[in-house]
Write a structure and sequence with these properties.
With 342 residues, the chain is an alpha+beta fold. The protein is built from 2 helices and 18 strands. It starts with a helix and ends in an 18-residue tail after the last strand.
């Protein structure tokens, strides 16, 4: 009897040990499996388009307390958009749900502009347009059969007075040409003048290279680097007039050249946002183009002064041919040393 009890005690201890080991090991594996399943579920949920996927008509109110002047176009979203269930594959759109303008427009090659959306909650959605420097985000919530909320602009330079605008998004029928592509959209609703213009160069025009950018111009045009202090400056010279440029952090944004004395347009040139100005009275003022973002926080201003109507027309055509992506200048020509004064 004592021997039986002794054996039973040993067996009982062994059984308890096995139970403890099983209790430690099995839940551990179950927890790991549960975590893995939850991660897979979260991934699956992330890949599932939200119920906001649809086409919308956007109505943007006035910026409060005041607008942005010439920069309004850069923070105004398209008037008609489609929220897609497709995810982006490059740039700021990587793995994000895409927004596309209606009707669909291809993005110029090399453009950094992105448009995407994501949900904050089952009733809230964020729509964003950006190129990494400037853009706008719409924070919208369901309100009966539409979305309502506020537009919040963002810039690469701080604005000390935050500004907002009321936004309404009304569902509309989706059109056949609203499918997504790998391209993005400009964060503004362009007029005919604001759309990307085709290159208007003639077949005999030639490329004139300035390094980080180039133009197409009639035969005989030349490039010359000029003396700069804190930026890369130079000129393109033709038979009858000259176009000067300033490439750097402090290039002239052409804010003095305003309506009604000037025709001012916003468009895409070379895949970048550009502002062109030309005097309404030819021969008196600046005919120029300003592009805020040309890489490494640099801007470009290219202009001619007091051009005749024919020269002004040619200059505007040359501006359309601007293209970017070349090597930056190896040096900036320094100003001449001051002469000794006796």
């Amino acid at each position: 009897m004592r021997q039986f009890r002794h054996i039973g005690t040993r067996q009982l201890a062994l059984g308890l040990g096995l139970m403890i080991v099983s209790f430690i090991l099995v839940p551990s594996g179950s927890i790991a499996q549960t975590d893995k399943s939850e991660a897979n579920a979260q991934t699956q949920r992330a890949l599932t388009p939200a119920p906001f996927e649809d086409c919308y008509q956007l109505k943007l109110g006035r910026w409060w307390p005041w607008g942005f002047g010439d920069e309004n176009a850069y923070v105004t979203p398209p008037s008609r958009i489609q929220l897609l269930g497709e995810r982006g594959t490059r740039g700021f759109e990587q793995d994000k749900l895409l927004i596309r303008r209606i009707p669909h427009q291809d993005r110029p090659p090399g453009s950094r502009e992105s448009s995407f959306w994501n949900t904050k909650s089952p009733n809230q959605v964020l729509l964003t347009w950006t190129d990494g420097f400037i853009g706008v985000t719409l924070d919208l919530a369901k309100s009966k059969d539409e979305l309502k909320g506020w537009a919040h602009p963002h810039f690469d330079a701080p604005h000390f007075v935050p500004r907002i605008a009321h936004v309404t998004a009304q569902p509309i029928a989706c059109e056949d040409d609203t499918g997504a592509s790998s391209g993005g959209e400009h964060p503004h609703n362009p007029t005919d003048q604001q759309r990307q213009s085709p290159i208007v160069a003639r077949p005999d025009w030639q490329k004139v290279d300035a390094g980080p950018f180039s133009i197409l111009a009639p035969p005989g045009w030349k490039f010359h680097q000029l003396t700069g202090i804190d930026s890369y400056v130079g000129e393109f010279t033709g038979d009858t007039f000259v176009l000067k440029f300033d490439f750097g952090h402090y290039s002239n944004p052409l804010k003095v050249e305003k309506k009604p004395a000037y025709d001012v347009t916003h468009k895409s040139i070379g895949g970048r946002r550009a502002k062109t100005v030309s005097p309404t009275t030819a021969g008196h003022g600046i005919t120029g183009v300003y592009i805020r973002n040309v890489g490494d926080s640099n801007a470009l201003t290219l202009w001619g002064k007091d051009l005749t109507p024919e020269q002004q027309e040619l200059a505007l055509k040359i501006f359309e041919t601007l293209r970017f992506g070349g090597p930056p200048p190896k040096y900036v020509l320094p100003p001449p040393a001051p002469k000794n004064v006796e």
